[in-house]
Design goal:
Mean pLDDT of chain B: 95
Largest interface: A-B, 28 and 25 residues
Strand content of chain B: over 45%
Structural class of chain B: mainly beta
Number of helices of chain B: 1
Structural class of chain A: mainly beta
Order of helices and strands of chain B: EEEEEEEEEEHEE
Radius of gyration of chain A: 13 Å
Low-confidence stretches of chain B: none
Largest sheet of chain B: 6 strands, mixed
Distance between the termini of chain B: 41 Å
Number of strands of chain B: 12
Number of strands of chain A: 11
Oligomer: heterodimer
């Protein structure tokens, strides 16, 4: 397994457009997390899945954001009606549901809204 | 709610010297895990080291060690014999349930190694 994969790596979109990002976790990992990182800050939690169930959503996740993980494999994060404030790096991470283990991160999708 | 504080926005260290990156945390939970991640300019978060809240010994991973002082709620990262490739952003993070929940990150420290 080559690790967590995110696509696309970079996305430039016009304000008001919808965008969708994909994350492919490490295959045996049943937990999948989405984080957002703005310039000069640490990543902030958005949401996470245990298999296909979305267990927690941050208050940062407005109604313009939606995430899915059909069949408990890959996940998508969609942003509708993008705003300039959505410009950030979107990071996906996966891990086993085992204590004392780390989450593995993908390389992220950098979104620029113009 | 959990909180991570990293008070050093940037540090410059001579190559081959040791460096300590500070991290303090706040939580009322007893069962938690503390992590350090490295983020080079490429953007990927690379796991370095983990410490569980009930671990009595400080964690070590190669050149990395975690100085865990539970009473002071600090979890400082020590890098020995720094190398040019250590130049990156370093984030301290914590997660409840011994690392099984979401990560809460600090604002990071930018480490620059000087040849």
């Amino acid at each position: 397994d080559t690790g967590v994969s995110q696509d696309p790596r970079h996305k430039i979109t016009k304000r008001g457009q919808n965008v969708t990002f994909r994350c492919d976790p490490i295959s045996e990992h049943n937990r999948l997390y989405w984080y957002r990182q703005t310039l000069g800050q640490g990543p902030e939690f958005l949401t996470y899945f245990q298999n296909e169930a979305q267990l927690e959503k941050s208050r940062l996740l407005s109604d313009r954001f939606s995430a899915e993980r059909p069949k408990g494999s890959f996940s998508t994060l969609e942003i509708q009606r993008t705003e300039q404030g959505d410009s950030a790096m979107y990071l996906c991470a996966s891990k086993e549901t085992v204590e004392n283990t780390e989450a593995f991160f993908g390389q992220g999708t950098r979104l620029t809204v113009v | 709610a959990q909180k991570i504080t990293q008070t050093q926005p940037g540090m410059f260290v001579q190559e081959k010297e040791a460096v300590t990156l500070d991290c303090t945390y706040d939580t009322s939970d007893q069962s938690y895990g503390l992590f350090w991640y490295k983020q080079p300019s490429s953007g990927e978060m690379i796991f370095l080291i983990y410490q569980g809240s009930y671990d009595e010994q400080n964690a070590t991973e190669g050149r990395y060690s975690l100085n865990f002082q539970k009473a002071r709620k600090s979890a400082n990262l020590v890098i020995s014999a720094s190398q040019l490739g250590d130049s990156a952003m370093y984030f301290c993070a914590m997660s409840l349930n011994f690392g099984n929940e979401k990560l809460t990150f600090g604002t990071g420290t930018r480490l620059t190694i000087i040849p």
